[in-house]
Amino acid sequence: MEKVEDQNPQQEEDQVVNPWEVSAKDGGKIDYDKLIDKFGCQRLDQSFVDRVQRLTSRPPHVFLRRGVFFAHRDFNDILDAYERGQKFYLYTGRGPSSEALHLGHLIPFMFTKYLQDAFKVPLVIQLTDDEKCMWKNLSVEESQRLARENAKDIIACGFDISKTFIFSDFDYVGGAFYKNMVKVAKCVTYNKVVGIFGFTGEDHIGKVSFPPVQAVPSFPSSFPHLFSGKDDLRCLIPCAIDQDPYFRMTRDVAPRIGYHKPALIESLFFPALQGETGKMSASDPNSAIYVTDSAKDIKYKVNKHAFTGGQETIEKHRQYGANLEVDIPIKYLNFFLEDDVELEHIKKAYGAGRMLTGEVKKRLIEVLTEIVERHRRARAAVTDEMVDAFMAVRPLPNMFD
Amino acid sequence: MAYSKDQLLARLKELQIEFSQYEHPVVLTVEAQAKYVGNLGGALSKNLFLKDKKHRYYVVSALADTKVDLKVLSQRLGLGKGGLRMAAEEALVEILKVPLGCVTPFAVVNESARHVSLLLDQGFKAQEYCFFHPLSNDMSISLNAHCLDKFLKSIGRDPSYVDLEANPPVGKDQPPDLAAFVPSDAPILSDLPVKAPTQDSTGKHVSAASNSAVVAAKAIKPSGNAQNVKEKPVNTVQPSIPAADAGNFVEELLDRASALLLSEISEDSIKQHSGQLGAEVANNIKKCLREDLKNLATIFKNTAYTEGFYAGTRYQPKRL
User: Fold this and answer.
1) Which residues of chain A lie closer than 8 angstroms to B210, CB-CB?
2) A88-115 pLDDT, tens per residue?
3) Would you tell me how many other CB atoms lie within 10 Å of the CB of residue A178?
4) Which helix (DSSP H) or strand (DSSP E) does residue A110 occupy?
5) What residue spans define the domains of chain A?
6) Which of A10, A335, B180, B191 has its CA 20 to 30 A from that of A316?
7) pTM for the full model?
8) What is the CATH number assigned to the segment(s) A30-269?
9) Residue A344 burial (CB < 10 Å; 0-12/13-18/19+)?
10) Residues of A (262-291) whose Cβ lies below 8 Å from B
11) Could you tell me the CATH superfamily of domain A281-381?
């Protein structure tokens, strides 16, 4: 029986991590070990990374190598089944609350694309426009519009249209999907959902009844046009660790309605430029690198706003070296610099004081600019017709090829 | 080749866009226009055709009593303080294909106006209907902003409304809020060879296009290859379905491979590897380009699939 967190997350907890709020204790760093312990998921250790490499015959993704995706639930089951020739499908999503996407938003999508390519499996992407309409008080039209705009950036991450179905809740909820929603809803008491998500008597009923919407894409029968006859198909959900509550609830319900529990593979939070006190915020343009930033913007933001662990003077720096624990450029390079050897070299030299903050920042600017530029070009090739095609309810005959 | 008033009206009817038309003697100013259609309940529009120092053009269409300050607009577009001025009459005729006194948002239907940026007053949305010239000064048509949007979308334009009277501060920490409206000059000016992703990508290439990536996707109608340089004569009446062009795709792949190849072969690398240089370079090219080329191929595949999908949704089943 796995540990299910029942306490109201706001009560007597030091750090707060849930789908709508992420903050560390006393403005410090997020303690991921504590989080894993509290949530009850597992660490993803090196043996998994090696196993993935063996099974997919290609180098593991940089996020796996660097421990960006660091926790999981039942990923070993997925790999065991895969080894036996049983495929799975991927499920991830986005809450379209703003048009401005930053690099932190892209991380699960970049990783999911790698999983799709490496394991050759289909993917469903949920755009929770209804959730944002409810939580952020957007109009229905605006949340639908944002969903379509965000879909373009998601598509630009390079998903294969012959294996990917993107849907927005306002468009798709109904039919088999809704039937599963009701099945899930019947299994979760009001008290339970209050315990998991911290709802209060003041919250409107839309919020209270939303969790099943995010739960049921984990069940293949929610997508009869894709997986009809494949009720046994497993689901793997790459997401950031703050989404864990939804899926704890889902995993609790799944066996009761006769479905496999979905497996999860979870990532760290991408730190804000100003330092590791929580998530990047879409409302503060200087806390993040946006996919629409120009090379000039990136240079400015990294140089002026990135929190560094360098010493105050060059002499002190040469003597003591940089504090890698808090240095944001090093953390960002950890996410995005592909070359393991080069990263090691930079960490050693910077930590010893041989390399200066300016040089590290310069390298980071190069790396980020390349990523943003590549994304921007891919985004320019995405048309409304392509979005329509990705979002059309259509069969995907080659989804496992 | 210019779109005529009759063609426009026919097209609006075809798209089932609701509008009313009023003929009157030729008018050159809003005041004159008001004499004939000012009492019909709708809002008159004033339309400016502007250009900036880099020969980029803008149509600013506003309610007649909206105050449009060119200095403020110029800053909000990121063109500096005196960056905008009224375009010359010749440009009006050549680019918008309309006579003097006839600037109208409908003029962007012309092929020659593909790169003209269109700014619409958000005040239009609050009006029941607004008056515009349908490519000729001897007529005014009135329609709701929503209907104008329908038309603009049908020609591949993204209707965006702006608060033209707003005067937000523009500075280091506040980027120009209308920068996305500055046309990207990619298709005409860039016959630059495609560079492999280099370490020293400069700001110029990126900043011109990065903010207008969304605008560019509509206004330029790129083909499957994101770096499209080929122009295709497009019938502006049909929605834009960019084609997956195998030729462009291959050119892009070859450009990247050869750029990387050239950078790999230097005096140093020749000295270092001599006879093994070939194998060494081949390996490096594969390593560096593998992911990039796969991404390009995926974009190509997605574009081709979209073309097929679009055609499929309009397929007419065989008659039995």
Assistant:
1) 292-294, 372-373, 376
2) 999 999 999 888 899 999 999 999 999 9
3) 15
4) helix A103-119
5) 30-269, 281-381
6) A335
7) 0.67
8) 3.40.50.620
9) exposed
10) 286
11) Tyrosyl-Transfer RNA Synthetase (1.10.240.10)
